[in-house]
């Protein structure tokens, strides 16, 4: 059993960017340990000061809670102590310029699942590590407009019954568990998302706002063994993407947050650069897939740090099945020509 430090050192080849990535992830792991201690010593308690709304909307338009801000502060400090030139956070309108000349940019959702903070349900942190090129130094506006394929590393922490880290450096996806006694993350092994899903995750309270293909896809799952899918599906929705993602990485399933007809939800709720891309990179590296419903999520060129995107990720066969319904809902028995030409997740 190796520690996170040993794993990172083994991957830090002569390439200075790999060493820089390792240094940053070490700092993030320390910050996550601090945040876990803060959460488990009262920040999620019913009367804790850190549970109340702080009142202001963040860059994505959501109301910030105190813990959102505290998480942002901790991870900003972690980035400042690492080779990070640009820090792009859900909790800040604009990217923050840190260490000039450093090789990395980091996009982050410091606290994912904020609606669950006061309910003692798992929450998390999602991060995406990108390269900084000379072109970005001349004009920083493009640094967070790199497609997800450009990511050097990505991952997410889950503050749950156990603090977990799921991370990819582009060579598989690995899970690490944290010990509160030692503050050390220990490797638990590679994650391989089962290709076949038995569970779907979608906020079904929005069913009346869904577009036809989404309704059809879910209906076909719900028909179970008697229906066209020929098997039963269970449903899970934690409303913390990190918690839904971790479960899916461990036992398969599909997570769906598409656009719908609610005002402001035409591209759903999930942010491309610091939510969908890092989870999508981890999913692909774990043998799964991630799309915006049709195209691989990692191929999308973002139009800005806070862009929203429809997202579907998890078991590869199920992500492809969802795309098949999206692409051509009227001919559900034929293989979509779209996927004949351009498979999802490199299938
Ligand atoms: O409340 P809804 O619409 O079900 O959305 C839940 C989704 O929104 C998110 O909470 C968005 O993340 P934030 O808490 O960082 O805004 C996801 O984690 C989760 O899956
Ligand atoms: Mg989030
Ligand atoms: Mg958040």
TrEMBL record:
Protein residues bound to substrate: 112-115, 203
Domain Fructose-1-6-bisphosphatase class I N-terminal: 17-187
Biased composition regions of type Low complexity, renumbered to the chain: 44-56
This protein's UniProt keywords: Carbohydrate metabolism, Cytoplasm, Hydrolase, Magnesium, Metal-binding
Record-listed Mg(2+) 1 binding positions: 90, 109, 111
Gene3D superfamilies the UniProt entry points to: 3.40.190.80, Fructose-1,6-Bisphosphatase, subunit A, domain 1
Region (Disordered) residue spans: 44-63
Cofactor note: Binds 2 magnesium ions per subunit.
GO CC list: cytosol
Ranges of residues in domain Fructose-1-6-bisphosphatase class 1 C-terminal: 193-326
Named cofactor requirement(s): Mg(2+)
Family: Belongs to the FBPase class 1 family.
Self-association and partners: Homotetramer.
Protein name (record): Fructose-1,6-bisphosphatase class 1
Species: Aureimonas phyllosphaerae
Lineage: Bacteria, Pseudomonadati, Pseudomonadota, Alphaproteobacteria, Hyphomicrobiales
């Amino acid at each position: 059993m190796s520690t996170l430090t040993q794993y990172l050192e083994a991957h830090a080849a002569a390439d200075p960017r790999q060493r820089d990535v390792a240094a940053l992830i070490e700092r993030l792991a320390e910050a996550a340990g601090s945040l876990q201690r803060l959460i488990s010593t009262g920040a999620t308690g019913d009367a804790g000061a850190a549970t109340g709304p702080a009142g202001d909307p963040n860059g994505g338009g959501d109301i910030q809670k105190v813990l959102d801000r505290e998480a942002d502060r901790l991870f900003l400090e972690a980035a400042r102590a690492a080779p990070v030139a640009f820090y792009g956070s859900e909790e800040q309108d604009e990217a923050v310029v840190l260490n000039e000349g450093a090789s990395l940019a980091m996009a982050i959702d410091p606290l994912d699942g904020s609606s669950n903070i006061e309910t003692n349900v798992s929450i998390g942190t999602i991060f995406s590590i990108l390269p900084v090129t000379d072109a970005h130094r001349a004009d920083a506006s493009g640094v967070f407009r790199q497609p997800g394929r450009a990511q050097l590393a990505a991952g997410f922490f889950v503050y749950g019954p156990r603090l977990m880290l799921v991370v990819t450096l582009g060579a598989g996806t690995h899970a690490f568990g944290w010990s509160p006694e030692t503050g050390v993350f220990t490797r638990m092994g590679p994650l391989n998302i089962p290709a076949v899903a038995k569970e779907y995750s979608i906020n079904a309270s929005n069913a009346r706002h869904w577009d036809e293909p989404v309704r059809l896809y879910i209906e076909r799952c719900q028909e179970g063994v008697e229906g066209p899918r020929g098997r039963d599906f269970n449903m899970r929705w934690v409303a913390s993407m990190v918690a839904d993602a971790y479960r899916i990485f461990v036992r398969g399933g599909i997570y769906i947050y598409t656009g719908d007809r609610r005002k402001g939800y035409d591209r759903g709720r999930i942010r491309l650069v610091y939510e969908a891309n890092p989870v999508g990179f981890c999913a692909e590296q774990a043998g799964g897939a991630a799309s915006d419903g049709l195209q691989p999520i990692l191929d999308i060129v973002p139009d800005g740090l806070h862009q929203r995107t429809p997202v579907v990720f998890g078991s590869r066969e199920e992500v492809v099945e969802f795309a098949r319904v999206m692409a051509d809902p009227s001919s559900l028995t034929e293989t979509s020509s779209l996927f004949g030409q351009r498979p999802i997740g490199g299938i």
